[in-house]
Amino acid sequence: SKGEFDHFMLKEIYEQPRVLAETVSYAGLPTVDETIFGDNASAVFDQVEAIQIVACGTSYHAGMVAKYWFEQHLGMPCYVEVASEFRYRARAKRPNTLLLTISQSGETADSLAALRDAAPGEFLASLVIANVDNSALVRESDLVFLTQAGPEIGVASTKAFTTQLVGLLVLLLAFGRRKGLDAEVQKQLLLALRSLPDNVEAVLAQRARIEAVSERFIQKHHALFLGRGVYYPIALEGSLKLKEISYIHAEAYPAGELKHGPLALVDEDMPVIAVAPNDELLEKLRSNLEEVRSRGGELYVFAPEEAGFESSDRVHVINMPHCDAITSPITYTVALQLLSYYVAIQKGTDVDKPRNLAKSVTVE
Ligand code: M6R
To answer: Which of 92, 97, 192, 351 has a 20 to 30 Å separation from 5 between CA atoms?
Structure first.
């Protein structure tokens, strides 16, 4: 039941502090309990040298985030591809590579076909990060990590995505012990996972502010999301959410690509949503946003106070809580979930069951 909430989507957004904590405790931290992946996990993890991630939609975005994390913190090559492309192309064999599928339902036809069609010996082993126990991907993969999101009813994926990201951080820790992940980084990551539910609560506390800015989107037909680094896939996820439930055409670009095309679209009717944490790429992003502003674009900037953005006539700053760099893609995601939810509410669309979409895509 939806309980006190008007929609499953809002309920599921609000469940995130709890289900994120449950996914963290399922992993048996502070040391990762590797048997939760399967009896054979330790032997497989010892040999893994690279990861091939295959997924669809929101789960694919989780894979894109993981690529930034695994390559930055472990120097481990990580390749990510949408399942519908991966399954139909001739692929080069990659030695000692783990095939990692990510899927809320565990039943997505293309992701399942990718696993089933992998050539014998093409991969070292398969691992799935899934939310539904005993689903096809869970039954057919060598190793499994079960996100503890609980049933997700809303077609737009929310808590499944953020718990997938936690699953990927747990995997990072499991590999990290073998690949010499800096002890300080490991400690930092454990602390960050522990404070994550509170950080998400702090984002939820911004609900009224996000609802207020959402009113400005009612008449819009297009929106542009920008992010850099690991926040580029977060921008992609934000734009997917907006288009799914509010039917506003939304695109996401790495901010550095602005000048290579999308800037031509920017005028006073184009809201530009920026994911702007206070990181080493902030100054680069700031100059991209200046370019948007000087062309009359209206800016919605999700940023912590330290980033120094100020609201003005056509700049709307949504304050983000301070949180650890490694988990902050999760907190920014929650803010963007709320934005699309409230835009959809203003537009009166069917939030939980957007037109033309199914919760689980079991045919290609
Ligand atoms: O169950 P899966 O995670 O495999 O589903 C993949 C996509 O169909 C799914 O994430 C879809 O993109 C959602 N509607 C996004 O909100």
So the answer is: 192
